[in-house]
Amino acid sequence: MGIDPRSTKLRVGIFGAEPWTEEMREQIESLLGIKAMNIYGLSEIMGPGVAFDCEARNGLHINEDHFVPEIIDPQTLEVLPYGQEGELVFTCITKEALPLIRYRTRDLTHLDNTPCSCGRSLVRMGRINGRSDDMLIIRGVNLFPSQVESVILKVAEVAPHYVLIVDRINNLDTVEVWVEAKEGLISDSIKSIEKVEKRITNDLVSLTGLHIKVKIVEPKTIERSEGKAKRIIDKRKK
Ligand SMILES: [Zn+2]
Predict the structure, then answer these.
(1) % residues pLDDT > 90 (the chain)
(2) Whole-prediction pTM value?
(3) What's the CA-to-centroid distance between 105 and ligand 1, angstroms?
(4) Structural domains in the chain plus CATH codes
(5) How far away, in angstroms, is 54 Cα from ligand 1 center?
(6) How far apart are CA 139 and CA 172, in angstroms?
């Protein structure tokens, strides 16, 4: 609309509803000139407001006067100690009519009970690193869409729109990432596109240990969703 976002009175944005990375926070803050705060909640419990960033932005304080959080191993269901990554589980202690007891959120994170510089004593949860039902197991290696996102957000030539296509060819799992070019890149030579693809492939190998084929597609060709983004097409289930 031709408005410079920095000329508006907007100073703070509260973002939630789907997992986002620190890299996404940096992009939002630098493009909009605002402070981007993280909020967590789930509609089964109350919607947004179960946990929120404080000014230290070192984890989200959970409102423990209403919710008892636990982290469990999603396979064995054992409760895990503070600091260990697993599935977040909540018990509501003030909710009426539809209380939830040890409700499995499917969200993967950890709890941090070390003192926070803001002075609040409520336990903090880390960022959501994926969902236990979102985790792909590729040739025995765990892979989350959030890992792919953190890599592509560091690459200036591509837009933050991507999809992972998983298949099984000759009994071997394969993953391909399709990521949209930013306007301008696609008009460049094939060589420069291949160079960017190679860079993303190498970054993904060093982060995940998996060789993931990267394909850069034209701007605005990956389907946009209202609500939660669809990041995975798993053809193995057919
Ligand atoms: Zn704090």
Answers:
(1) 58
(2) 0.67
(3) 23
(4) 5-131 (3.40.50.12780), 136-237 (3.30.300.30)
(5) 5
(6) 7
